[in-house]
Amino acid sequence: MLFRDLGRGSTTLVLTAHPDDEVFAHGAAIAMLSQQGSRVVLRTASGGEAAESDVDSSAEARQRRAARLDAACTKLGVCEWNWLAEGRWTDTAGRQMPGSLTNASITDLAEVIAAEIHKITPDVVLTVGPDGLTGHPDHILIHQAVAGVAASCEVPVFGSYLLPADVAQGHDLLAEILPGERVGSGRMTGSDEPSAAPLAAPARAAEARRTALDEYANGLGSLALTELVRVFPGRGDSLLLRAVLDAIGWQTERYTRLSA
Question: Does residue 236 belong to any structural domain of this protein?
Fold first, then answer.
């Protein structure tokens, strides 16, 4: 099965755009790999500032998000995390602004990512698939940068994705609970990848994923969906992804091979 041969002595590098992507896109794999003994290293390109809207400054938002990320990493078993080019790119919710990740050059991102791969020398690299898992422009940028590096490196690189049927099942669950309400940005549609590699992690990895997601919002991972919609303030892709995980199983992730 996928990643089962990666145990003690191996290193896994995970590359994401924002804090919480590590849980939504790779939480089951990270927890499973960590439990197998692999050293899991995370690099995140932005501080997730846009998700912390009730603070006075971008610096305060990044600090708060970093604390959430740190706690989530502990729950998943991440050995070490840091920013990609610390402080260089900020999360502006997909709006192109000076210094935003959305406005970043793919070439610049690729150079930083290549340097991290060279320094960390991982046995495998995980990122998101061509549609960025959710269609978010920052996720797609990360994919494009990693894919560009993957073409010239010897390390196997895998991108996480969802099937259209996965997304549809998430919408169906939410439609039963929130009839008539729109949930999600509309960018997340799923994709049928030709080189699919499914992951079915053990139950304890799924549980670690749930508890890690709780670090970003109370109950986001652990509350029943019927209860969560009453207390969770958003109706965006985070809630839709939560519903998708309920539908397909928290231990399930899908990957496509990005490098030979």
Answer: yes
